[in-house]
Specification:
alpha/beta; 14 strands; four-stranded mixed β-sheet; elongated
């Protein structure tokens, strides 16, 4: 049985590896803040949220839309999702009371424990089916409706009753019926477990005279005889014991997958509640396939910044459809890096099938998301900052594919204006030739000026606004770079003095 809440055709694989550059993405986009909010202190929820987002770059548009539909149901019915998740968790935890794997060295032990565990799991399946019957009209997404239909079809009353009957037989209250043939040296071979004979009514047993069948008795101190009979019994039940153990694993695997996939949506519910408490809006994104150069947002906010501040922050509205390069310039502390991070976080959230912290968001699916942010100088002094930047860029270039998205924040600012601008210009041109979308935050005026002079239709320039009094409103406007870095603002901030004449 498959839950199919995360993918239309397969289950979510929590053990699948994440991209090699995941630690860099986590650091630059401050994703740990987002995952902490989704987890609410639960380590399992945190792990699922992290894996779901970092694995999302391989999701196609159909998978994204499938998750969005399931998420819409979950956000509409949070109490039901929590109830369903609790049922899955209780089932997995309840396994420990019925399965003692470290003590089971014999088929008879495996059989007894498997029968006990399966009885418990049958009861839990019945609860799941009852839940599905109660809520089948409440949930509208294909994912939830398919899950509920599966539970009602696979765990109906007739099937569960038949399963209970078989489990009762496998208790072997009246002994284990086994047949065997004689092999070489009269050694037993071809051991086969038989169905127990039907017990006659009590009155027939009471009127029957003599022993019901041929047999023998072991002396109570005959340890060797008891051990020999035990070995015979284990040979007979070995196959059925293994089959029952596999059945237990199959049913438990279903509950484990259900718990894992519900954990993702429970994390989204937790995140929605925290963003709503901070007054930040959210929406489900419109996604298009890679290569369509789609990027349009209304009041897009950095979800991680909202969670840190505990209140709504300034959002930005940008229409960059058809643009393969977006260059962002402007005054320090004007919101450039926050917008860059907001785009990266929103891209990951969208591709994971989550909502986005914006009033509206539409973007293309990227084949890979990479960040190239400035770093502090190498403490070991084995290389300079520019060498370190170029080495990281080389590593990124080896993993880039057409349709990827690169977020660059103050790259190549560690060298002089002329050299940094030339490196940045050549890098951007090479990336555009490979159909890599680039969003570039920079203070390199010569770099921005030379790009503007090219007058390419697929290039967009944004600028962080600075008010006449020097204050920032943290909004970006369409506009080319200005020939000033507002150094007087930095002077006043550092020295706390009036702007020099």
């Amino acid at each position: 049985m498959k839950t199919l809440l995360m993918h239309p055709e397969r289950d979510f694989d929590l053990e699948r590896t994440v991209p090699d550059h995941a630690p860099v993405l986590t650091q630059d986009l401050e994703l740990a803040t987002l995952w902490d909010a989704m987890a609410g202190g639960d380590e399992f929820l945190h792990d699922v949220a992290r894996k779901a987002m970092l694995q999302s770059l391989d999701n196609d548009a159909a998978t994204i839309r499938h998750r969005q539909q399931v998420l819409a149901d979950a956000l509409q019915n949070p109490a039901d999702v929590r109830e369903l998740y609790a049922l899955a968790v209780e089932t997995i935890e309840g396994r420990k009371k019925h399965w003692f794997g470290i003590f089971m060295n014999h088929p008879s032990s495996v059989l007894h424990s498997s029968v006990d565990l399966l009885r418990f799991l049958v009861d839990r399946l019945r609860e799941l089916r009852t839940f599905a019957q109660r809520r089948q009209t409440t949930f509208q997404s294909p994912g939830f409706r398919a899950l509920f239909a599966l539970l009602q079809a696979e765990a109906d009353d007739a099937y569960l009753a038949e399963l209970q009957r078989h489990l009762k037989l496998l208790k072997f209250d009246h002994g284990v019926p086994i047949s065997a043939a004689l092999g070489r040296g009269n050694e037993g071979v071809d051991y086969v477990l038989r169905l127990p004979p039907e017990q006659p009514p009590w009155w027939q047993r009471w009127l029957h005279k003599g022993p019901p069948q041929c047999g023998f008795r072991l002396h109570e101190r005959d340890e060797a005889g008891a051990r020999a009979l035990g070995e015979l019994r284990d040979r007979g039940i070995n196959l059925i014991a293994n089959t029952l153990a596999q059945s237990c694993d199959h049913v438990l695997s279903f509950f484990t997958t259900l718990r894992t996939e519900l954990a993702f949506y429970l994390g989204c519910i937790n995140l929605r509640d925290k963003l709503a408490a901070a007054g930040a809006s959210h929406c489900l994104a419109q996604v298009t396939e890679a290569g369509t150069l789609r990027l349009r947002c209304s009041e897009l906010r950095d979800a991680c910044l909202v969670l840190k501040m505990g209140r709504r922050v300034v959002g930005n509205t940008v229409d960059a459809d058809g643009r393969g390069l977006v260059v962002i310039t402007g005054a320090n502390q004007g919101g450039k890096s926050s917008f860059l991070r907001a785009v990266g976080v929103a891209q990951l959230m969208m591709q994971a099938g989550m909502f986005v912290s914006a009033e509206a968001f539409a973007a293309e699916r990227c084949t890979g998301l990479f960040t190239h942010y400035k770093r502090e100088e190498d403490a070991s002094l084995t290389s300079g900052k520019l060498d370190e930047e170029l080495a990281r860029l080389s590593g990124i270039a080896a993993s880039l594919r057409p349709g990827a998205l690169l977020l660059s924040n103050e790259s190549f600012a560690s060298t002089n204006e002329r050299e940094g601008s030339e490196i940045a210009r050549q890098t951007v041109h090479a990336l555009r030739e490979r159909r890599i979308k680039v969003i570039f935050v920079t203070h390199l005026h010569d770099f921005a000026r030379r790009l503007a002079a090219e007058r390419r239709a697929d290039t967009m320039f944004l600028r962080a606004e600075r008010q006449l009094d020097g204050s920032r409103n943290f909004r970006l406007v369409v506009g080319e770079a200005l020939a000033t870095s507002f150094g007087e603002d930095l002077y006043a901030e550092v020295f706390g003095a009036d702007t020099p004449a």
